[in-house]
């Protein structure tokens, strides 16, 4: 596969763009692979990529029931930050954030990483205390964040009304190297790099059963026939409970809808990401000028990719009081994704009761930011049986009561 470069763009401009190759192949499934990953979202593709890149394991298939990146990876609002409270979380999210810094070069694919800075507003005394505590924890963890005063908030984002009608802004947790990236490009970039290593990405191939023998995984049944494997990774976000059931075990998860919306494009007015968790809204401006907006999850379990209407009202109300200048903005589109929530709001990256079968799920409302770190750790777990990045996130923590409580850092009301 030819590398993308400024020279390639110039060459193709001169020959009417007739020389571009397909970014990834669409092969027929083989009878058997060393590793099968179920789910071609960011986490599944990144796991496959680092299996190849870090461990030389390339006889890998990624099976996707729809189109790659069509799950939460292509539906999220792309916020990247690593300002979590607990040490294992800070380690995996900061690993991910630092990999994002050079991911475009690594994948030879422009993922449009934009470290524009993320601020989480503190609008109650409890939030001030919570975010100050996080800033102290981050300092010890080597994660660069700071708690900033209201005048600095106003300086960083002049369109915020810091005197808010209900909740004045009392400060913010600020991560200057947090930001955004283009979500589709993250999936496409990993897919292209996997395909280049000879891996098979097989779309429109739904896994309908997990085949086992003597307590060990031997393959999967799919809408395109049975496929064998030595190791299986289940990386299917909101569908994790269903697929785990096929493999014979249960997960401590709930699936709920989380939605987002975008406005008509307007002139640049905001060059940071702002999250206002007390009033339940967050906003950033895309490169096209649209305001990218989201709020809390639906308060009931469901499998719709839509989200309920009252949340749009609540979110828009919250943002109009935070940014009064958007009050006459027209909204263009709204959509939802099915997010997989654990009780402690931390992910599961784990071996399972079925030998050879591993699971990566529970990223809930916040797993876009962690894709590179999660893929890195999950690949190590699958290749070597253990990884320092994933050690604390095993399934056994729910049995042993070793929760990794990140309900404040999750950043979205649930
Ligand atoms: P997905 O991208 O959902 O991929 C799972 C794939 O598995 C899907 O493509 C699905 O089709 C496939 N699959 C399911 N069942 C099967 C089967 N039986 N056979 C084959 N394939 C199957 N996170 C952030 O960090 N920052 C944000 O700003 C942010 N905003 C969000 C906003 C919204 C509206 C939503 C919905 C989520 C948001 N998130 C955010 C969360 C983030 O999107 C997810 O945590 C992350 O994308 C999960 O990635 P994934 O690869 O695990 O799952
Ligand atoms: O995890 O930062 C986050 C987030 C923002 C919006 C949805 N999730």
Explain what you see.
The chain is an alpha/beta fold and 414 residues long. It is 29% helix and 26% strand. It contains eleven helices and 18 strands. It has helices at 6-14, 42-55, 87-101, 103-107, 125-141, 150-156, 183-196, 240-246, 309-322, 371-384, 396-400, and strands at residues 32-38, 60-63, 79-80, 118-122, 146-148, 171-175, 179-180, 200-202, 207-213, 216-222, 225-234, 254-265, 273-276, 281-285, 290-301, 331-341, 348-351, 357-361. The strands form three sheets. Strands 1, 2, 8, 9, 10, 11, 17 and 18 form an eight-stranded mixed β-sheet that branches. It has an eight-stranded mixed β-sheet with strand order 5-6-4-13-14-15-12-16. A hairpin with a 4-residue loop joins β14 and β15. The longest helix is centred in the first third of the chain and has 17 residues, at 125-141. The protein is globular. It binds flavin-adenine dinucleotide and pyrrole-2-carboxylate (PYC).
């Amino acid at each position: 596969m030819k590398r993308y470069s400024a020279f390639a763009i110039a060459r193709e401009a001169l020959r009417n763009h007739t020389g571009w190759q397909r970014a990834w192949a669409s092969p027929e499934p083989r009878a058997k692979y060393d590793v099968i990953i179920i789910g071609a979202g960011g986490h599944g593709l990144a796991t496959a990529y680092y299996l190849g890149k870090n461990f030389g394991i390339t006889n890998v298939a990624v099976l996707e029931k729809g189109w790659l990146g069509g799950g939460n990876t292509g539906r999220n609002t792309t916020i990247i930050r690593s300002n979590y409270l607990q040490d294992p979380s800070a380690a995996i999210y900061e690993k991910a954030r630092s990999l994002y810094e050079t991911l475009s070069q690594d994948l030879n694919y422009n993922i449009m990483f934009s470290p524009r800075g993320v601020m989480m507003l503190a609008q109650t005394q409890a939030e001030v205390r919570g975010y100050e505590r996080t800033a102290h924890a981050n300092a010890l963890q080597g994660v660069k964040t700071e708690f900033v005063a209201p005048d600095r908030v106003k300086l960083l984002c002049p369109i915020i009304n810091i005197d808010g009608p209900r909740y004045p802004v009392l400060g913010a947790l600020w991560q200057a190297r947090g930001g955004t990236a283009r979500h589709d490009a993250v999936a496409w970039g990993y897919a292209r790099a996997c395909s280049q290593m000879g891996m098979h990405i097989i779309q429109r191939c739904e896994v309908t059963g997990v085949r086992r023998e003597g307590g060990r995984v031997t393959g999967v049944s799919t809408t395109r026939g049975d496929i064998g494997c030595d190791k299986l990774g289940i990386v299917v976000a909101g569908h994790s409970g269903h697929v785990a059931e096929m493999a014979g075990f249960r997960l401590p998860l709930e699936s709920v809808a989380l939605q987002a919306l975008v406005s008509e494009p307007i002139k640049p007015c905001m060059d940071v990401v702002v999250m206002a968790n007390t009033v339940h809204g967050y906003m950033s401006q895309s490169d096209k000028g649209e305001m990218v907006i989201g709020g809390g999850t639906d308060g009931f379990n469901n499998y719709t990719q839509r989200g309920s209407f009252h949340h749009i009202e609540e979110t828009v109300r919250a943002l109009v009081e935070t940014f009064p200048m958007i009050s006459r903005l027209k909204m263009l589109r709204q959509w939802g994704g099915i997010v997989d929530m654990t009780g402690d709001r931390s992910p599961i990256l784990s071996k399972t009761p079925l030998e050879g079968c591993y699971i990566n799920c529970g990223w809930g409302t916040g797993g876009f930011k962690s894709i590179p770190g999660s893929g890195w750790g999950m690949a190590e777990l699958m290749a070597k049986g253990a990884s320092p990045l994933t050690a604390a996130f095993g399934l056994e923590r729910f049995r042993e009561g070793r929760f990794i409580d990140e309900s404040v850092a999750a950043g979205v009301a649930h």
